[in-house]
Amino acid sequence: MLYALVGVLALRIAFADDGGKQADRGGALTEIADKPFGSALLWLLGLALVGMAVWRLSEALFGQAGPDGHKARKRLASAARAVFYGVVAYSVLAYVTGDKGSGSGSSDRQSDDVTATALGWPAGQWIVGAVGAGLAVAGVWIAVRAMRRKYHKHLRMNEMSTPVRRTVDTLGVVGGSGRGAVFAVAGVFVLVAAVRHEPGEAKGMDDVLRSFRDTPAGPWLLMAVAVALVAFGLFSWACARWRRV
């Protein structure tokens, strides 16, 4: 749901009809809250994210599905994801219980603050640079794995009809590639912030997406990325249906 909503908000930004909305998690939460039964939907979303955190924690403790799921690197990856989803779940639940600054803060401002703090540490430039490089490499890795359809081993493809399989493949390749591109561009901005020692160069999700609109391709590139994020949101629902667990 979050990826799909961020994609929809990015589509609005592409054609300058954003209404001041942020194309990031905070913007998505605000969008949900403004709708009928918004609070109930946010509660469901927050509890679902708690479920994601607990599921990833179970993978860290007992291993992932598949023959290599008990390897240490797989468990460590699941542990990191459990922490990530736990933090996101907390921010959503804090937002719905009244702390509006928790989940809806600008990702761009948060990115600036975190980068500025890190740059002030001993060897801060190297640390921030390493994070940026790691994020850029992770983005390329995500995109390449999506294009190579590595997600097949995580899904029960044999249970899908041919039309459904083709649809899931399209969503997986397009969505994963777009998501990887966003991560990679975000990593490049963090790397530039480290090289220039300028926290403002690091960008959150909202500014990263807007940067696509500022290229020679104009709003059309941002529109393509936005559609890809919506596709990844839909692909995530397919994963919820056919994931090997």
Verbal overview:
The chain is mostly helical and 245 residues long. It has two domains: 25-105; 107-245, no CATH class. The chain is built from ten helices and no strands. Helix 3 packs antiparallel against helix 4 (72-96) and helix 9 crosses helix 10. The longest helix is centred in the last third of the chain and has 35 residues, at 162-196. The model has no long low-confidence stretch (mean pLDDT 88). The chain crosses the membrane at residues 40-58, 79-98, 126-147, 168-195, 220-240. Residues 2-62, 78-149, 175-243 form the DUF1206 domain. This is Membrane protein. InterPro entries: DUF1206.
**Number of helical regions:** 10
Helix content: over 70%
The radius of gyration over CA amounts to: 18 Å
Total strands: the figure is 0
Order of secondary-structure elements: HHHHHHHHHH
